[in-house]
């Protein structure tokens, strides 16, 4: 039976436990120390996060419809397909992990937590998949999309 290996783009692949002597173990420890030192020399995570947050703010302001979701999330795919079925071509911004998803909270007026996928229409947060479906079923989604300039008909 196969076992799934969790993957995160933010951290390196786990290494198998070394079955080696003392000298080889010391070499591996030195390599890991050098890797940690190299990571500390990279630009700070705060500056990088601020740049990503600014990128999301700009996308929300420029795009009539923006879908923000986790990379590879099936719910994001459902949101995108629903909007495409209505004739809207949404911009999609994929985030890698939960820490990056907190950047989206800075875009929202209240600054609260945002469930992913988040759908922004006309520069304002419409909500997640459940809110999008509720608005669609009630018949209010098409007028909202027309007011935002995402639909022409």
TrEMBL record:
Domain Glutaredoxin: 65-125
Pfam families: Glutaredoxin
Intracellular or extracellular location(s): Cytoplasm
InterPro entries for the chain: GlrX-like_pln_2, Glutaredoxin, Thioredoxin-like_sf
GO cellular component, one term: cytoplasm
PROSITE patterns, A to Z: GLUTAREDOXIN_2
UniProtKB keywords: Cytoplasm, Redox-active center
NCBIfam families: GlrX-like_plant (TIGR02189)
UniProt similarity note: Belongs to the glutaredoxin family. CC-type subfamily.
Protein name in UniProt: Monothiol glutaredoxin-S5
Originating species: Zea mays (Maize)
